[in-house]
Request: fold
Amino acid sequence: ENIFQKAKDLGADLVGSLRIEQLEKNPRAIEEINKIDSGARSILVFAVRMVSSSIACAQKNIRIPQFSTSLLYNELGRINFALMKELDERGFSACPVPTYLPVPMDAHTQGLIAELSLRELGYLAGLGVIGKNRLLITKEFGPRVRLGAILTSAELDPGEPLNQDLCGDCELCIKSCPSGALRKKGEEASKLCARQNLKYGLPGLIRFAIKLIKAPSEDEKINLILSPEFWEYWQNLNMGIFYYCFNCLNSCPIGK
Reply:
């Protein structure tokens, strides 16, 4: 109760936890946890809401929701580290689950799968349900939250997954998806989403590098380097924010 209250005092809007054994149906997650902290007993999960009006203008000025998201990740980091210190001072282990970067970079994951799924942790901790947009949907804020999590040896009181269908017959997110990703499943859906949402992230950078290498003349190579497209990659790499689509967040009526 103390650590939950501490999280709220620090600015978390939702707080919960789960026991490691709740992930027993996900052997990869258990394996990753054991690599990080074999003594972990619980996972503290918290959510900070987005400011809806700051992402609502995404189609008119993408920089605003991008910067707002960057600020939100800074806030998550502040809360995360303060909670880690609190747990550490009480004699418990505290290992953060990376919020968004870095992620493993190898041929198998292609940089798209992190150690643990924050949305799965949020669901198991009782913060929300997985919606048709494949995001964690909370009753209070819909999908407009970002999550943080900490592995700890503290035995925290676990939450229970919500046994509710918050989406019902609504398909606004599916209809709003510009890439059609929400009509697909598995790897195909991920690739379609990444092509739209991360077009100036790693997938786009790879395409640009290939285009640069194949440019037939030095002048064309120079023009590519001097193009706004290249500047966009440079800017995103410096900021660490690559999101270019907020449709599934803005279209969801839950929590508005």
User: Anything to note?
Assistant: The mean pLDDT is 93. DSSP finds eleven helices and six strands in the chain. Residues 63-89 form the longest helix (27 residues).
